[in-house]
Known about the structure:
alpha/beta; Rossmann fold; DNA polymerase, domain 1; six-stranded parallel sheet; 9 helices; globular
Amino acid sequence: xxxxxxxxxxDFDGVIADSxxxxxxxxxxxxxxxxxxxxxxxxxxxxxxxxxxxxxxAIARDRALPWxxxxxxxxxxxxxxxxxxxxxxxxxxxxxxxAFIRAAAAEVPVAIASGALRHEILQILESVALHELFAxxxxxxxxxxxxxxxxxxxxxxxxxxxxxxxxxxxxxxxAIEDSSWGLESARQAGLRCVGVTxxxxxxxxPGAELVVEGLHALTLPMLDALVRDxxx
Length: 232
């Protein structure tokens, strides 16, 4: 039977890389230098779905801080330096992620739609020789708006379409996400949605048509069945 699945678009942090705790620590260290704290619950409940600029802008709004765009840019740069130091300290991929990505890329085009910075994504992927498997990587700053806007997934789909040998149907392409923001972004872009419970529980992942513990618990036949079920 011919596979109904045409492509897969992965979120990065929280799906491929277990880097959310590292992002939190980097944000905490930057804010501590300015005499502020950021709790784990606050980060996961309010800021997880944003890119770096979005996090600092949201913190400024929530705390009525008079941060200028220039200061936010400086904060993002400082956060990036701290994250690089943390990433270099050890393995950050989720168990089973490399194996699933290699299996998926052997069958269908794969891409990334992430709010992480491109050099951070590439640093991690290159360390395990996965970077060349992705037909497209959409990172922070590649679109005017970040998740939950559909822009990141729309661009990822557009780039996949440019690389594909046939016309792709977004309803036969799957997005894999760990947050409600990401799922909303993918859903608005017309992709089928899979949630992983690495950051939130299943009830906190509205819009996910399939929920699994992580990539180690996901198979290509499961994704094929998901998109096939939605075909008329």
